[in-house]
Amino acid sequence: MKLLTMLIDGTQRIATDDYVGFTFFVGCMAMMAASAFFFLSMNSFDKKWRTSILVSGLITFIAAVHYWYMRDYWASFAESPTFFRYVDWVLTVPLMCVEFYLILKVAGAKKSLMWQLIFLSVVMLVTGYFGEAVHTSAPGPAIWGFISGVAYFAIVYIIWFGAAKKLAEQAGGAVLKAHKTLCWFVLVGWAIYPLGYMAGTEGWYDGLAGLGLNMDVIYNIGDAVNKIGFGLVVYSLAVASTTKTSEA
Length: 248
Ligand SMILES: *C/C=C(C)/C=C/C=C(C)/C=C/C1=C(C)CCCC1(C)C
What we know:
This protein is an all-alpha fold. The protein is 76% helix and 2% strand.
């Protein structure tokens, strides 16, 4: 059988070679499952960690809803759902910045640090949107992508070497360890996105297109790794700081 019929929505099919449709579908399920996991585990932790776990669940839940629409959009038009993609990111990436703030609060992190990270993440995403959806012919995407990249590296700098790093060191222990892992997610995991962007937009990097990479597949892999991975790091931190009392 060449076509796998999906009963969701009654009528849609996903062809066996439709990797994009497949990753939207699996991404949707993974985000839903992760949300249930984070929400249901929330109350087994010390009060001070509950907000962090709640935010982990909100990130995957918001993504699950957007994946539902993106999966549908792809199935209907076989086009990249750029609008839903960026609305999803502009809601979830700032929440990931909130996660940094929440875990560093024990060391006295200030709200201004959180707003700084949120501001940079919004600049990164809005400029990326301009390159992907507004100024779509070369050199538009490369120029907007560059500005987006500057904002991205500013975030990397703050968490790896700036104010956030100092707070993590003051906190020490499990918080420092979690902070370090999240820093790697931002440096390596988030770097997946500019690759997807280059695969899907026009520019000097068009030679990459020969590799047959698909922008949406790359973004979908990036989202699964980063949104669920980020949440699990925070989850592990909460476990590490709570087990003392609940271990049997
Ligand atoms: C859950 C969604 C996440 C973590 C999305 C992250 C997105 C990025 C880090 C996007 C970065 C981009 C650049 C650094 C340059 C090119 C344009 C973007 C927006 C793809």
